[in-house]
Specification:
Helix content is about 70%, strand content about 10%.
Length: about 260
Amino acid sequence: MGHLDHAAFGWLTPVLSYAMACAGAALGLRCTVRALGATGRSRRNWLLTAASAIATGIWTMHFVAMLGFGVSGTDIRYDVPLTLVSLLVAMIVVCAGVFAVGYGRDRTRALLLGGLTTGLGVASMHYLGMAAVRLHGHVSYDPVLVTLSVLIAVIAATAALWAALNIKSPLAVTAAALIMGAAVSSMHYTGMLAVSVRVTPSGQALPGATAMQFIFPLAVGLGSYLFLTSAFVALSPTTGRPGAPASARPPVESIAH
């Protein structure tokens, strides 16, 4: 069996990946709060921004954490198309979950549906990302830990969406983001604990790209996207009070559409 190292750079990758998950969650929750206070095209745009922020945060968290992943006795490469598919899956599924909440008539049903969808999306992104790993050997999973990681993902997503619907104050949003970041990170590391690798030493070159060639630049790019979007959201003016009814808001919104 190959010895698995989940933190080859010490605390750097776990801490950085947690920060990424929190940043994505905070931005996503903030945008969802803004979306619920908007109408028409404006609501749709805020929800799209929220979904892209949450998905980017989760995906970047996973792959920043993967930068610290190593197996003794073999190099590791990443299948580029499959890694990109995992990002696409995260975007689409989180989008479906966020929109279920943003447009749901029945709050409870929308929340459960959105949480389940988003949670399964996060989990499928994680395992697709793991499927993109290329190494000399055979990767197997502990089914109990895999099930637990999926369960954590669904509960975390439901809790985060509940927070987006019910929490308005910036301090509470920050707390919710820290909790969501912790939940996403624990889902990731639970999923990683489920992994065992039987190494078959080989001199053959592995297909795919190294983490530094591909994962690192992509993570930096997505991290920059999160940072810039956060700045944009922080600076964009709020239209009326988030809690104000549509009629109490300035008429500019309706003219814009």
